[in-house]
Amino acid sequence: MQTPLKIAVVGSGLVGSLLAIYLKRAGHTVHVYDRSPDIRTVEFSGRSINLAMSHRGWRALDDVGLGEEIRKIAIPMEKRAIHVIGEPLNFQYYGKDGESIYSISRGLLNRKMVTLAEEEGVKFFFETKIWDVTLADATLHAGETERGEWKELQYDKVFGADGAFSRIRHRMQRQSMFNYSQQFLNTGYKELNIPANADGTHKLDKNSLHIWPRNDFMLIALPNLDGSFTCTLFMPFEGENSFEALKDRETLEKFFADYFPSTIDVIPELVEDFFKNPTSTLVTMKCYPWTYSDKVALIGDACHAIVPFYGHGMNAGFEDITILSQLIEKYGDDWDAIFKEYQESRKPNADAIAELSYRNFMEMSSKTIDDKFLLQKKIEKWFSDRHPDKWLPLYSRVTFSYRPYSEALEIGDRQKAIMDEVMQIDGIENKWNSPEVEQKIIELLK
């Protein structure tokens, strides 16, 4: 327990609500502000990518005893299911011994987290617009409009958990020596839906993350508890196969018949969903520093928004909280030390998962159907099973371990260089699991 303070968290999303629970447990008075209505009272709007919870996210929940409660609304996905036109369904397992990532509805989880935080004694202020913060004394400024009258809300500390377009960061950006960049992909996304069967069962394998990889674009589907799947179509905004090109019912239906024929019978509301749901953008945002003095700190997407192709946006944000909590335990009331080590520790890892997430788009959209890539993955798994002390595949290092993301990126690059050499061995297709290949990898590792 720390000396009790009055702390504000701006943003009632997944990271903001879990952070509020941690701070409340540490003995503080915690108020959470959000400009949106209470998520428990609104219909979801068709712009969510289902979450893929993995080890890092579960650790943050388990450390405060909430993991079991959240597992009730999660579905384990132990494998990818790859849908290729004219070929049988191909399953690619993620880890070993049933290691799984878990599909959770973002809206369902957020509702649950807000309720759990309220039960801890956290106070929420919805439909309260925070326009600015005085960094020097952690005073929030709230009002109906940006140019209207503002009310001052005074706190000891402020955490900005208000997402990629954070108002708290917006104020910090106007400080000298604050570095900031944002980069939009020319690929956007749109949510679609596969409803449940009449008896409530899933139309596709429920323990898989389904991918229809088509090089420049792809469709994915993650299972929901009610038997449905949340689908996301990722494709360029402009060009031959793009959102711009799909302007009417006829073009859309032909496009799906040509490229996603196996979905025709399972997405009955394709046309309605496609033209009703928004086309959303994907952005990578980086900044530094993440803190101001011992008064204000950014967390989650507010300081490291990433694209969703590794499924680690939430996991990375939850790991921010784990690290922050460990530092609170280490330094007690020394918030200067807590904030300093927090940002120095997390920044390289946030940059690393941003890079890994960007690269994984290429893997999911095209490499999952490339024979050479699949053989490479088979060799890696075979070698890793024989020498677990020498080789942990990159995906497992990111998803099924707590090792730093920056380490995963560095070791992953080294492993790629080794595998590039191995794949050049004459006749590798026929001797991929031979002593010769095993020795070659061992030599290259030295």
Set out the fold topology.
Elements: E1 6-10, H1 14-25, E2 29-33, E3 51-53, H2 55-62, H3 67-71, E4 75-77, E5 79-82, E6 90-93, E7 101-104, H4 106-120, E8 123-125, E9 130-134, E10 139-142, E11 151-154, E12 157-160, H5 167-172, E13 179-184, E14 187-194, E15 208-214, E16 217-223, E17 229-236, H6 249-259, H7 270-276, E18 283-288, E19 291-292, E20 296-298, H8 301-304, H9 313-331, H10 335-365, H11 371-386, H12 394-399, H13 405-422, H14 428-431, H15 435-445
Parallel strand pairs: 1-2, 1-12, 2-8, 5-15, 12-20
Antiparallel strand pairs: 3-7, 4-7, 5-6, 9-10, 10-11, 13-18, 14-17, 15-16, 16-17, 19-20
Helix pairs in contact: 1-4, 1-9, 2-9, 9-10, 10-13, 13-15
Structure annotation, total helices: 15
Low-confidence stretches: none
Helix content: 25-40%
Cα gyration radius (Å): 23 Å
Care to describe what's here?
Helices cover 39% and strands 21% of the residues. By secondary structure, the protein is α/β, with parallel strands linked by helices. The strands form five sheets. Strands 8-2-1-12-20-19 form a six-stranded mixed β-sheet. Helix 1 runs parallel beside helix 4 (106-120). The protein is globular, with a radius of gyration of 23 Å. It starts with 5 loop residues before the first strand and ends with a helix.
